[in-house]
From TrEMBL:
Residue ranges, annotated region (Disordered): 1-233
DNA mismatch repair proteins mutS family domain: residues covered: 1046-1062
Biased composition regions of type Low complexity, renumbered to the chain: 1-29
Any GO molecular function: ATP-dependent DNA damage sensor activity
Recorded coiled-coil stretches: none
PANTHER family, per database record: DNA MISMATCH REPAIR PROTEIN MSH6, DNA MISMATCH REPAIR PROTEIN MUTS FAMILY MEMBER
GO CC, alphabetical: MutSalpha complex
Protein name listed in UniProt: DNA mismatch repair proteins mutS family domain-containing protein
């Protein structure tokens, strides 16, 4: 924090030279008011081209400075509203009223420019204008170096840094235009709340309309040609009136938005405009013109400032008030960066942190003629590149991994024997979780429906998508729009930003990210020639996608810390390993069950289909983990059920053995709850341990570094404490029981031995001291570099002590002592005058004296001081880098720490399954059987999610395969429970193969390799796909990829077309699944003619959801939700119409027409039966049919 400082007294009016020199800090962002003889320094340089590196040192043009006066821009003043809380942004008020409100204390004849910044800030920070007793001044730092960059020979010294009030616009030149600030929030928990930026007041314009002027928006770019609307606060701001920012906007190369190569990230700023800007605003525009898609947090002193369109974003999204003047401008203190950056990133914005990377003294030393210190972009945060660093403070619960997806698309033509050439789509993908540094890189072909891409989007929580400009087809864009609707999207230039495979390899090698190249990448390269940059065709797109990802990470300045972890995995589509040439493999060999995007959605595995939330999903029902890394692994287990019987039984054995050990499970979970997110912490410690002398953050001038250092050490200590707790868990698990399950015994035996490593760090430094001071002071023997520096300091101090003893003996005076504390004046010999009255030693040099004493330096003391200063500098340098070396030392055992975290996550997941299995009523262990004759036998099964909320849930049996037939044709009334039974069956199978007990009396099955679901139908209007097309496309995927071991459920296939076409399509699909695929299938339909076709079929079981019909009113039906054998006589659709409260007249007309249709169909069916009987010459059947038809009119 900064110390409070009393604002300096106003200089006397008579002192004209001092008065002319005094100038507000804002004058370097806004030219001063137009006065006689006044001029503003400006640059005559032309607008610079795109910098080769956005992070290069930002300096101000140094030539062509000419005085240019600036006219006052036109501004629109809204009509004030008569209310006490109204904030007026351009009010006309008298100076006396301002003084009464505590917003101004200057005389009428004093210009606002003549008031020191500290005083202006203090008066702007008054908390309650109407009560002097409630006014609160803002703490002003004593550091003058913060603003010294703004001081030159023409400017007076600024009295304070940019602590708590942002720069104030002085363009108006009149105190009458001073803004009446809204009282700050009373909460003072952070410095942000103590600043004058309070919550924004009500404004005449709506938030949505005000936001139109902001050029940085989530998910979509602003239309530069749209009409100018005030950015906020009910007035048109200065940037709203610039044509080159709106209707005449061009990118930095001069291209218009209509140009196919237009780059919306950049902006051409007119050279004549820049010449009129102050050096500091020229510096801001130099950064902004290449980052128009980004909100700049521009550091000035201890404040981050937002200007122009960025200030509009701050007003709309962060509730930051504008500073006075027509230039949109707001800001907040450095310590509030975590809060405000996280807010914008969570809403889809990109945020760049622009830091001062030198002090005014450093600027003078490098001989720069610039009036402002250098600034550089030190980080660029987006939803996909947010690493949750120490600057972000509280890390929050990140139980779900968020991914940045880079996608490369290519269309190819394939031809197989006996088939025509077909167009297929090929993708290269790179997914990275920036919080853990894990990369998934892969390449795969896909169908024209992009089924594998849909599955990828369902498997991973993608928050940001990076693609090549003009590199995606319209169909793929539609999939990304609907499959990852909340993700922000970026386009990279082909070649220069989205690298090809060869350039990617060349860049990776030049940067030296890897000590040893990951196997996931080398498999696509020439293994015999390490220097080769050639990539095989089966990995060309994958490497290109990785190249685009690396470019994006470089832009965000996090490439080194993530890539150096070398955590690369090959992404393979779930169904790629299960592709077989034969449709009936005899044995199931794959490792995981394939769940495509449709199945994940239809079964509501991760989110419910009502509002897209986690509540009500299967994950919410089963996930009882207590650690964030455990939750991420549990989601992976849910999406990747096991296929191998031995692996499933091993997991079930562990769960079953933990069920009776409830007290132990509770004890272990209590310990796990105390652990931080160790997986995230490992990645952060690695980043902090990497030596990055060229990273701009290493040059950033941070004013809250002590708090940041405490955060680093706090996370480090919490990580060590968490791993110490893991040792306790292993000990408790070992001593608790004689475990018999292979999984638990293997867990104990393979847990890495961390005792020695933890003991080293326990002795390495004092944790309590480190947490208080923010520095790690290593214990003796732990850091050789620091120990050597400390030994040198101690040796020199010992020499000085010996010299003091020698002088006492020589002068025969024991009262001689050392005096002084300043660096160059220390160790002065303080000698009584009586001791040197007779004869003063010639080497004594008088430095100072006090009554009765003289103080001396000698040549020996000066030599020791010189050696001591050098040794202390070495000690301080070693101490400053101690934390990084400690982190790097910890990171050397990264593999062991990572393995321990994975083991803890596995235990957390097993205990979660044991709680669900043992504490839920009616759960039983499933029995898995390895056989080449697939079957499924469930007795009294219940849907886990629905049964947990419905007390009288009706259980049902499901029998498929074996002697009951592999297919069930399911009929029944609408709302009778058909869809619930279908989902229930798939869910129980998934739970069983996940290793969890299931809600049923018994459950026996052979493992499934894929679960296919075709449920419901909806018109994808925005994607240009109709109901029938969606149905048939999903069905085609099932028919093309299902095997004998698959489980397929289809609900009401063919309802998107006519009855006859729908029935015929459904019939064809049933025939294929029965005779070609032979998989376990549940087919729900209302086509009674389809069901009647399979009355006597050996492979088909007929069932229906039972109901009771009121004998007195056939339209009154009671659903029993119970599966019964046979065909349901009717669908009872009119009953649903009655429940839906359709008008009775409509229902009566529908009932009459339904009866008519039934009679026509019966007659048509009778005619068919007559023709068939005549063809086979069956006279007996004809007589029977005649008698039946003759009797019907009498009964109707």
């Amino acid at each position: 924090g900064s110390a409070k400082k009393t604002p300096p007294k106003k200089p006397a009016a008579a002192d004209s030279n001092s008065s002319k020199k005094q100038q507000s800090l804002l004058s370097f962002f806004s030219p001063p008011p137009k006065k006689t003889g006044a001029s503003v320094p400006s640059s005559g340089d032309k607008t610079s081209s795109t910098p080769s590196n956005d992070n290069a040192i930002i300096d101000t043009p140094k030539k062509g400075i000419t005085p240019v006066s600036k006219s006052t821009p036109t501004q629109v003043t809204p009509k004030p509203i008569a209310t006490k809380t109204q904030v007026e942004f351009t009010p006309k008020q008298s100076a006396k009223k301002l003084q009464d409100n505590g917003l101004d204390d200057s005389s009428a004849d004093d210009s606002d420019d003549d008031v020191p910044l500290a005083k202006k800030r203090k008066r702007l920070s008054q908390n309650t204008p109407t009560s002097a007793s409630k006014k609160k001044s803002i703490a002003i730092s004593d550091d003058e170096d913060d603003e010294a960059e703004w001081n030159d020979k023409d400017d007076v010294d600024m009295e304070s840094s940019d602590d708590d009030v942002s720069l104030v616009d002085e363009d108006s030149g009149s105190e009458d235009d001073t803004v009446k600030r809204r009282p700050a929030k009373k909460k003072a928990s952070t410095r942000a709340s103590s600043s004058s930026r309070g919550k924004k007041p009500p404004t005449p314009t709506t938030k949505s309309s005000a936001k139109k002027s902001a050029h940085v928006t989530p998910d979509k770019s602003s239309d530069p040609s749209s009409s100018v609307v005030g950015g906020g606060g009910g007035m048109v701001r200065l940037h709203d009136s610039w044509p080159w920012l709106h209707a005449d906007r061009r990118d930095i190369e001069g291209r218009k938005p209509s140009d196919p190569d237009y780059d919306s990230r950049t902006l051409r700023v007119p050279a004549e405009f820049l010449r009129k800007e102050t050096p500091a605003m020229q510096q801001w525009w130099q950064v902004k013109q290449t980052n128009m898609d980004t909100v700049l947090f521009f550091k000035v002193g201890k404040f981050y400032e937002l200007f122009h369109m960025d200030a509009d974003v701050g007003f709309n999204e962060l509730e930051l008030n504008y500073m006075k003047g027509d230039k949109a401008h707001s800001g907040f203190p450095e310590i509030a960066y975590a809060k405000f950056s996280a807010t914008l990133v969570s809403r889809g914005y990109r945020v760049a942190r622009v830091e001062q990377t030198e002090t005014p003294d450093m600027m003078k030393m490098r001989g720069s003629k610039s009036k402002v210190v250098s600034r550089e972009i030190c980080s660029l945060l987006t939803p996909g590149t947010n690493t949750i660093s120490f600057l972000d403070g509280s890390q929050g619960p990140f139980s779900e991994a968020s991914y940045l997806l880079t996608l490369k698309e290519q269309t190819a033509t394939t031809a197989s024997s006996g088939r025509k050439e077909q167009q297929v789509v090929e993708f290269g993908v790179c997914l990275v979780d920036c919080t853990t540094g894990v990369f998934h890189v892969g390449q795969f072909t896909d169908s024209l429906q992009r089924d594998r891409l849909r599955t990828l989007l369902a498997q991973f929580h993608v928050v940001e998508i990076v693609v090549e400009r003009h590199g995606l087809s319209l169909e793929t864009k539609a999939i990304l729009t609907h499959g990852a609707s909340g993700a922000i999207k970026s386009e990279l230039k082909a070649g220069t930003e989205m690298w090809d495979a060869t350039k990617t390899v060349r860049e990776l090698k030049a940067a030296g990210y890897f000590a040893v190249w990951p196997d996931a990448l080398t498999k696509w390269m020439d293994e015999n020639d390490p220097s080769s940059v050639v990539v095989h065709t089966n990995g060309f797109l994958a490497m290109s996608a990785l190249g685009g990802c690396v470019w994006n990470l470089r832009r965000s300045l996090i490439d080194q810390e993530l890539l150096s972890l070398s955590q690369f995995q090959t992404y393979t589509p779930p169904d790629a390993a299960s592709d077989v040439s034969s449709s009936k493999p005899t044995l199931l060999a794959q490792q995981y069950v394939v769940l495509d995007g449709h199945t994940i959605h239809n079964l509501e595995l991760l989110r419910n289909n009502y509002n897209g939330q986690r509540t009500g999903s299967l994950l919410a029902q089963l996930d009882q983990t207590v650690t964030n890394f455990g939750k991420r692994l549990f989601e992976e287990w849910l999406l990747k059920p096991l296929c191998g019987v031995n692996a499933i039984n091993a997991r079930l054995d562990a769960v079953e053995e933990l069920v009776p050990q409830h007290s132990l499970v509770v004890e272990l979970r209590t310990v796990l709850k105390t652990m931080p997110d160790l997986e995230h912490h490992l990645a952060r410690i690695h980043a902090l341990g990497v030596l990055r002398p060229d990273h701009p953050d290493s040059r950033a001038i941070m004013y809250e570094s002590s708090q940041y250092n405490v955060r680093k050490i706090k996370n480090f200590v919490a990580t060590l404490t968490g791993f110490q707790a893991s040792v306790q868990i292993v000990h408790s698990l070992t001593q608790a029981n004689q475990w018999t399950s292979d999984m638990l015994t293997r867990w104990i035996s393979t847990f890495p031995d961390l005792k020695d490593k933890l003991a080293y760090f326990d002795k390495a430094f004092d944790k309590n001291v480190a947490l208080k001071t923010g520095t790690i002071q290593p214990q003796e023997g732990m850091d050789p570099e620091y120990d050597d520096a400390v030994a040198d300091v101690s040796a020199i101090e010992a020499d000085l002590d010996e010299y003091l003893d020698a002088q006492r003996a020589a002068l025969k005076c024991k009262s001689i002592v050392y005096w002084g504390s300043k660096k160059d004046d220390r160790f002065q010999l303080e000698v009584p005058e009586s001791a040197v009255a007779a004869k003063q030693p010639p080497e004594y040099e008088l430095k100072s004296k006090k009554k009765g004493y003289k103080r001396f330096h000698t040549k020996f003391i000066r030599d020791c001081l010189q050696r001591l200063a050098a040794a202390e500098e070495r000690r301080e340098a070693a101490l400053k880098d101690t934390a990084r070396r400690m982190f790097a030392n910890f990171d050397k055992s990264y593999a062991d720490w990572k393995r321990a975290v994975h083991q803890l996550a596995v235990l957390d997941c097993l205990m979660s399954l044991s709680l669900v299995s043992g504490q839920s009523e009616g759960y039983t262990r499933p029995e898995l059987v390895q056989t080449d004759q697939p079957f499924l036998d469930i007795q009294q099964g219940r849907h886990p999610a629905i049964a947990s909320t419905v007390s009288d849930f009706i259980p049902n049996d499901t029998h498929l395969g074996s002697d009951r037939g592999s297919m069930m044709l399911l009929s029944g009334p609408n709302m009778g429970g058909k869809s619930t039974l279908l989902r229930q069956t798939c869910t129980l199978v998934l739970m069983a193969q996940m290793g969890c007990f299931v809600p049923a009396e018994s459950c026996r099955l052979s493992p499934v390799d894929r679960i296919f679901t075709r449920l419901g139908a909806s018109d994808r209007i925005l994607a240009g796909q109709s109901t029938l097309f969606v149905e048939l496309a999903e069905t085609a995927t099932i028919l093309n990829h299902a095997t004998q071991h698959s489980l397929v459920i289809l609900d009401e296939l063919g309802r998107g077309t006519s009855t006859f076409d729908g029935t015929s399509i459904a019939y064809g699909v049933v025939e294929h699944l029965l005779n070609t695929t032979g998989c376990r299938t549940m087919f729900a339909t209302h086509y009674h003619s389809l069901v009647e076709e399979y009355v006597d079929h050996a492979k088909v079981t007929l069932g229906h959801m039972d109901c009771m019909v009121d004998p007195t009113n056939e339209h009154k039906v009671v659903f029993l939700y119970k599966l019964a054998d046979g065909i349901c006589p009717k669908s009872y659709g009119l009953n649903v119409a009655k429940l839906a409260d359709l008008p009775q007249q409509v229902i009566d007309v529908a009932a009459a027409k339904s009866l008519q249709f039934e009679q026509v169909l019966q007659e048509s069916h009778a005619a068919v039966q007559v023709r068939q009987a005549v063809a086979r010459k069956d006279v007996g059947f004809l007589r029977q049919l005649w008698a039946q038809l003759a009797a019907e009119p009498a009964t109707s």
